[in-house]
Amino acid sequence: MMKKRVLIIDDEVEVTSFFTYFLQSQQCEVTVAHSGREMHHLLEEGTDYQLALIDLKLPDANGLELLTAVKKRMPACEAIVMTGYSTIKSAVTAMQLGARDYLEKPFDDLDSLESVLFSVLEQNTSTDDELARTARHFGILYAGSSPMVTLLTLAEKLAKKAINVLIEGETGTGKELLARFLHGVSPRAAFPFVGINCGAIPETLLESELFGHEKGAFTGAVKGRKGFFELANNGTLFLDEIGEAPLSIQVKLLRTIETGEYMRIGGEQTWKSNIRFVSATNRNLEREVDGNRFRADLLYRLEGVKLTIPSLRERPDDIPVIVQDYLEKKYGGAYRIDEEALSLLKTYSWPGNVRQLLNVINQAAAIHEGPLLLPEHLPAAIRSHTAPLPQNESGPLSVQQFVEQEAIRFQENIMSRIGSIDDIQFDILLERIRRLETEVGRHVIRKGLGETNGNRQLLSEKLGISKRTLRYILNEKD
Question: 424 and 349 share a domain?
Fold first, then answer.
């Protein structure tokens, strides 16, 4: 069998020596570069490598730029990046740019390290079909061209890591489904998945639900009770709507996440927990921190890595898959949906996302006796939403022209609906408008990163913004 050629790029001699010894024992041909300059020189020689190990922190080069260069020169080359805990977010960015996985320095967990390397050397990876089947098992449906493919591919890799995950997304996008997916493909899958909605439980009860209580701890505590920390031990604790948690609870959460220790209400015994935290929110927690409504140190602990679920309007091709699956499961295939009705569904904005879509389908089926759901069975708001793409004399409007025209219409619609200020939640109104601005900005930047092969300097110049602004819009820390 032909030996695999491996390129190691790291300025630490101890690291390159360790990997050289290990990889040669696996019958690999190993080449070492101790700097970005040496790596570029090796690439110019034209040798093809099957695997590249790339340190993200080199004295003379940016690891992400080296990764981009390797993938551009050798698209089939698998890449693993090496990083310290302080640059985990960069490692996630690397995986979005095509890295297969990342290794965290120092390499304390040798079993995990060997597992990652063997998975690449032996080409143990999920196919797109396997990923789709796994996702479907957890209730996540999507088309082959969906942005969910990228999200779930990344989530599957991160699930293997001992790192907390924060899931962002609008209401109804399926944040709990993604949390269950993360648990189900993780090493903790055999242990409990326990979820709690931090916004649905009164503050006086939330502490008891999380930490448990002893008998007689408060009025009505006629017997002791285990809390979710205890019930989820060795598994995953899902903190839904974490942005709703009161500050008093945030303090206690922080301590438990940092130390793994907690006490039941009314108790004196210290309990230990071994939990992976997955949190979810439809709020911008950084803005909540700025407004002193959320603790920055807790956000840092929960946001080991952040995953953002795209809204349904960002993945319209998924709608037929979701609708047809729902009709099959709910009604045993007794209903089908007309193509024109599907087209209307694909062009609607879906502020309530997948949850709203399923409600609409359920209502249409409930009021219609025939086997085919037609446009007239859909709510009037959906039927009237679609309009032809605006044109000017020379053809379709440019994106810039379309945005300017729609912005005026959007402003007029909002202002015409404003009645008494008693009916307005002002902070929520402005927050939603700001979120729309952020979503559009992120979409443009992500598309630009694809077009520039991840070259942020070039993209910043094209957009006329600084790299700092680019990172801010992507919600990345410096």
Answer: no
